[in-house]
Amino acid sequence: MGVSEPRHARPHRVKTGEGVDHPLADLLRPEAGQSFRWTEQQGRELLLVEHPRCTAVFSRQGGQLLHFQPRGERPLLWCAARWPRIGAIRGGVPVCWPWFGRHPMESGWPHHGWARLSDWRLTGKEADATGVRLNWRLELHDWVVELEAELGDEMHLRLTTRHRDSETCVLSHALHAYWRISDVARVGLLGLDGAEGRDLLVREACRQEGELRIVDGCHRVFRRGGKVTIQDAGWQRRICIDGGGNANTVVWHPGSRPLGEVSWSEGLGFLSVQGAACGQDGVTLVAGEEARLSLRVWVE
Ligand SMILES: O=P(O)(O)OC[C@H]1O[C@H](O)[C@H](O)[C@@H](O)[C@@H]1O
Questions:
Q1: Which of 163, 185, 202, 249 is the most buried (most CB within 10 A)?
Q2: What CATH number is given to the structural domain containing 269?
Q3: Structural domain harbouring 150
Q4: How far does residue 8's CA lie from ligand 1's centre (Å)?
């Protein structure tokens, strides 16, 4: 449903004291009206979304939302500037599927599953006055995975897994979002007070008391979904993340552990808060059943 974009439109870029807010922002022209355009960057096919209410970028690899920026706001998602030639793009909302983390039996299989390494098919795109809706599909063996994205003033992602086999199957999955923040030392995560889970850094059960602050890394899997808020004192904004009925909320930041191809200062600019069903909350699907994950996000 694209319309042609105005010629000579100037790229839009928000700068901060710490540098550029998002490495893909230069590709977009928010004033271009409603359009969907394909382009290529670092060997990946990207779909650029320009709408009066928001701009966004998807990668065909992974069906991965890499950038989302409601009009008048800073970008909501963080993305690494450099991507490996082959492999997962670090940033945006990678879909971890059909397993989260290490495969439970096959040590040589890729971390976080096949979905973020595979090319997805765009099965629908439409725009109206309030925003855009996109549908991505991945078909692998007996599985059909669909990602529906509604983007406007808010962002809503829904992941649905169906399997066409008559056998029962198990999976774990996550919408592994990387949120763009001013500085990981200046944010707090609200809404987890009393939540129980597992701290994977110390390999112990944990229970959150009050606000969660990140001190040299965090890797906790809480056994609940629902709403959490990233309170960003540096940018004076709150990112509200509603994980609805997701089984788990995962909070991750590598702290001082290096992340391949991500510079130290880049790594300070994100916090990963994910909607997931993993570990002991992995999903067992009987024939005909569906598994779902969702994230609804807005800025306050
Ligand atoms: O480096 P990746 O495979 O993209 O994974 C990034 C991170 O994702 C998750 O949150 C995992 O729980 C972490 O263990 C992992 O380091």
A1: 249
A2: 2.70.98.10
A3: 15-299
A4: 41
In this predicted model, what pLDDT tens digit does every residue of 64-123 receive, in sequence order?
Answer: 999 999 999 999 999 999 999 999 999 999 999 999 999 999 999 999 999 999 999 999
- Upstream peptide bond of 6 is cis (omega within 30 degrees of 0): no
How large is the ipTM?
0.93
Position in ligand 1 atom list of the atom nearest CA 219 = 12
For the CA of 116, the closest atom of ligand 1 is 4
Indicate whether residue 252 lines ligand 1 (CB < 6 A). Answer: yes
- Rounded to the nearest angstrom, the distance between the alpha carbon of 101 and the centre of ligand 1 is 6
Ligand 1 lined by 250 (C-beta under 6 Å)? yes
Separation between Cα atoms, residue 280 and residue 278, nearest integer Å: 6
Q: For residue 31, report the phi and psi dihedrals to the nearest 5 degrees.
A: -85, 5
**Whole-prediction pTM:** 0.92
Question: What total of structural domains would you count in the chain?
Answer: 1
Residue 1 belongs to a domain: no
Please, are residues 284 and 247 in contact by the beta-carbon 8 Å criterion? Answer: no
Cα distances (angstroms) measured from residue 38 to each of 50, 138, 218: 11, 19, 36
Instruction: Looking at the CA of residue 90, tell me the nearest atom of ligand 1.
Output: 4
User: What Å distances lie between residue 259 and 83, 255, 266, 271, 273, CA to CA?
Assistant: 12, 9, 10, 13, 17
